[in-house]
Amino acid sequence: MRQLGTLYFFCGKMGAGKSTKSKQLAKDKHAVLLSEDEWLSFLYPNQITSFDDYLKFSAQLKPLVKKHVQNILSVGTDVVMDFPANTQKLRKWFLDIASGVNASHQLLFLNLNNEQCLRQIEQRRNEQPERAAFDTEEVFIHVTRFFEAPEVSEGLNILQISGKE
Questions:
Q1: What is the set of domains in the chain, with CATH numbers?
Q2: Which residues of 42-57 are buried (b: 16+ CB within 10 A; e: fewer)?
Q3: Tell me: the pLDDT tens digits for 13-47?
């Protein structure tokens, strides 16, 4: 029987370091890295100007991404997804991807507090000025209202990574 790949995905508030960690993990695991931000900016250039736009285009992307990831996992390649798994509904989508092809998974939960995330967002805004319009405290407060920490009852293999404080 063929060895299946493992699906790795991340949960953490905006600014917790999901993209940074996903790049490092993909490198360490020699895995395929898929970045939602990259896909969205390529497929929908200059069309995402609000959180509602993001939700709309992200939803359009999901069926294609699910099938694509399942194909990669099926040939035995690990996949690291830099897509947020910040609500139970989103985490169920990731779990469905893996279970649909009987692949294993791991959720990495970057458990940082609001102050740590806001500091990292400020640093990112300075390093990537093109993100300044979206990387604001106001946007952070808005999207954090939807954040749901993962629960054991969701049936996920969770690895929690706490902030440095």
A1: 6-162 (3.40.50.300)
A2: eebeeebeeeeebeeb
A3: 999 999 999 999 999 999 999 999 999 999 999 89
